[in-house]
Design a protein that fits this description.
9 strands; single chain; binds magnesium ion; 9 helices; three-stranded antiparallel sheet; Rossmann fold; alpha/beta; binds adenosine-5'-diphosphate; 269 residues
């Protein structure tokens, strides 16, 4: 087991589509009335039931991931590819224990640093400074250890005066900057990076990429979600291609990219 950083076995994640993304399921009175009227209507009219079946959301659930099994060795840099909705972010959230799988399990051997979708990972009411300490504490670092990294994080993120403002007032780009800076500077053994898309500033993106290259060179384990094929090629030798929650390819980065760009998961390589 010593060589394995990440192992997932038959990971599956089921979502119910009436569950709001990010928010809690809040069944308001209005919603209750709307649903009961709908049920009444469906009961009275058999045609409505037929139409409902044809609707893509008719069964009201989606397997965001299904039977996802793979292994990543320590020191590997693996790209995660897939069109929107393929399950990339959900996979990273499971690996960083932000969310639990419905089926299967994931083993992680090492300290994880993660830059997830904007809005995940930070506490919105706490300031940037407090969130840096909180993230370090979650990683099991002492206050003193975090202190030694603190200035580097602030300097890298270029958030300046925002440091003592609650995160909820940050733009998504600024949250992304801080999340990236925290993830890479708190010395994770395994780094999970969801697309750096939220950061629109080109020169900052370049800075992130060169930092990632440095981390890969140091031999740390990286899982990197990106739609930028050039960055994927420079960082990773291997990629996992997801289509509608399933792994359709796992192997050489160039082959994965050509399969992804062909738009047809069954395309011959
Ligand atoms: N909290 C949620 N509630 C319901 N559906 C969700 C939730 N999170 C993700 N999904 C659905 O799961 C699928 C995979 O999402 P995601 O992992 O975000 O895709 P992407 O590959 O673009 O990152 C999508 O169909 C998405 O709508
Ligand atoms: Mg995503």
């Amino acid at each position: 087991m010593g060589n394995i950083a990440i192992r997932t076995v038959n990971l599956g994640k089921l979502f119910y589509l009436n569950q709001k993304k990010r928010g809690k399921l809040r069944e308001t009175l209005e919603e209750k009335i709307r649903l009961s009227l709908k049920h009444l209507f469906t009961a009275l009219s058999p045609d409505a039931k037929k139409n409902e079946k044809k609707h893509p959301f008719a069964n009201k659930h989606i397997w965001a991931l299904k039977n996802v099994s793979f292994e990543v060795k320590h020191g590997e840099a693996v790209g995660i590819l897939g069109h929107n909705g393929a399950g990339k972010s959900v996979l990273l959230k499971i690996l960083s224990q932000v969310t639990k799988p419905t089926e299967g399990y994931a083993e992680i051997h090492g300290r994880v640093g993660a830059m997830l979708e904007v809005g995940t990972g930070f506490h919105p009411e706490l300031t940037g400074r407090e969130n840096i300490y909180l993230s370090g504490a979650i990683l099991g670092m002492t206050r003193r250890e975090i202190k030694t990294k603190f200035d580097e994080i602030v300097e890298f993120s270029e958030i300046g005066d925002l440091l003592d403002m609650p995160i909820k007032y940050y733009s998504s780009g600024m949250q992304g900057r801080l999340a990236f800076a925290v993830a890479v500077h708190l010395e994770p053994e395994i780094l999970l990076i969801d697309e750096v898309l939220a950061i629109e500033d080109i020169s900052f993106k370049e800075k992130c990429l060169s930092k990632l290259k440095e981390i890969v060179r140091e031999g740390r384990t990286v899982l990197f979600v990106s739609h930028n094929m050039d960055s994927l090629k420079t960082l990773c030798n291997r990629a996992i291609l997801l289509e509608r929650g399933k792994i359709v390819f796992d192997g050489d980065i160039k082959k994965a990219i050509s399969k992804y760009l062909s738009g047809n998961p069954d395309a011959k390589l």
